[in-house]
Amino acid sequence: MNIKRNSLYFKFNILIIGAIFLCGIFMGSIFIYNTTVNLKQDLEKTGKDTALALNAIISTDVLLDNKFAIYERLMQTLKQNEQIRYIIVESPDGKILSTTFAKGLPKGLPLYKENNSSATSEKVDKMLFESNEGQILEIIYVPGNDIIGAIRIGLTENIMMEYIKEKCIQMILTILIICMISSAIATYYVWYLLEPIQIMSKAIREIAKGNYNISLDKDRNDETGRLIKAFNNMARRLSKKEKENSYLLAELRKKEEHNSLLMAQLFRAQEDERQRLSQELPNASVKPLNL
Predict the structure, then answer these.
(1) Which of 11, 37, 154, 223 has CB atoms 3.0–4.6 Å from 86's, for a disulfide?
(2) Which SUPFAM superfamilies match (predicted)?
(3) Tens of pLDDT along 203-218?
(4) Phi and psi, residue 249, nearest 5°
(5) What is the pTM of this model?
């Protein structure tokens, strides 16, 4: 099917595909936004739950000053969750009891939190900072006791951003596939709707040339079928009118020929009478007088 830029096929396709694409982008943006918000909330919840669990697990080890056991529990927690970048356990006076910085310290990380010796109530804070590994969300849990000053859980957003990136690519590919399928469906239905108009356009050009013996096939019961029926009725009336005009024109020509024949006979009779009179008048003028 040859689709020109100024044809209705092209315009309908652009309209439909454009509408689907814009709707897809709008819905996809809402989906990505909601997914990002939910993932960040889940990330914060993961940090809080991990900090609470660690506080319950390592409190006894901190009292016994078993640094090896504390480190083992921190590393075990770190391995169980890929989103956790590091864990820091501080004493109530702000000193570091144990850390998991086996892979090195992320750039931009605040080395120490404020002194928590004055903290007397349980609370949870969060801090977001940029590092060489991207954005890191740090959840700071203060138990509010004299055993542990704070548990700092550093959560990387790289996994979350990779997941969002993957979803964006899937969304774009889905929108493109939907647009291609919609284009094929729209092209078919536009062709189905506009085919009678193209046929009638060709028939109208034939009528303009004087060919009134045209009848289109009506195989639809919708508006286009009624339009084709009206066109066929118009073509029949024009054909009938053309025949009537041709008959009248033929009759007029016959009458014109008859009138021409009568005029010719009249002129011939006048000429014969004139010649007869011209012959009689000279004979009368030379006749001798009898005295």
Answers:
(1) 154
(2) HAMP domain-like (SSF158472)
(3) 888 888 878 777 777 6
(4) -65, -40
(5) 0.57
